[in-house]
Amino acid sequence: MKTDGKIIAIVGAQASGKTTLVRNLTKVRPEIKGFYEGENFPKFVTDAFVSNEFRLRSFIYFHNHWIKQYIEAETQYKNGLVCLLDTFWLTNLFYLDTLKDKNDQLLIFDLIRSTAQLFPPPHGIIFLNDDITIMEKRIYNRSRQGNRDWEKRSQWLSEPMMVKQRHEDLFQEKINFDVFVENSKVIELKSSSPHLIDKSLEFIDDC
């Protein structure tokens, strides 16, 4: 079933399966285009994963990256493509607690809120929310196979757990959601589900 063009954001904590889902969905439908967070980050960004010295700068880096992707996705979906975003400009909201300075937190919060007022929200949001034990295994496996050295640290898991909780707070309506992405359809799925692809495609078609 061919769908009309639209933007679908896939969000969740680290190792929740976002990139894998985007890749698998692009294999199923020729009209689906994937946008990825990437792996080869500047050194000041990877340094920020270890310490807070460059953390604010990394927030700006990712914000700019996601805005560029979103602008391209808006052009592509108007041409009939389904654009799947592996995270998007809202994602920084879930990491605010990693900024130790409250003024830095407010600065990024205002940036996200201003962005939400400038850009139309995605047509749909798929929130991947797996059990923490599954996330732990994924983080361990990819830290051994890839270039994510920061994930090898024993204390790293506390950040994905915090980010997972912040996603739940927003998408399970424990805090005001409409301020940021009013009118977006939302579904919560487990990336470990055997029906993930079918449920995701059904959701995309309904958006």
List the SSEs and their pairings:
Layout lengths: L5 E6 L6 H11 L3 E4 L7 H8 L4 H24 L3 E5 L15 H17 L5 E5 L3 H14 L12 H14 L6 H4 L3 E5 L6 H11 L1
Parallel strand pairs: 1-3, 1-4, 2-3, 4-5
Helix pairs in contact: 2-3
Characterization of the model:
With 207 residues, the protein is α/β, with parallel strands linked by helices. It has one domain (6-202): Rossmann fold, CATH 3.40.50. The protein is 50% helix and 12% strand. The protein is built from 8 helices and 5 strands; from the N terminus they run E-H-E-H-H-E-H-E-H-H-H-E-H. The chain has helices at residues 18-28, 43-50, 55-78, 102-118, 132-145, 158-171, 178-181, 196-206; strands at 6-11, 32-35, 82-86, 124-128, 185-189. Helix 2 (43-50) packs across helix 3. The chain is globular and about 45 Å long. The model has no long low-confidence stretch (mean pLDDT 86). Residues 8-107 form the NadR/Ttd14 AAA domain. This is NadR/Ttd14 AAA domain-containing protein. Pfam families: AAA_28 (PF13521). InterPro entries: NadR/Ttd14_AAA_dom, P-loop_NTPase. It comes from Pukyongia salina.
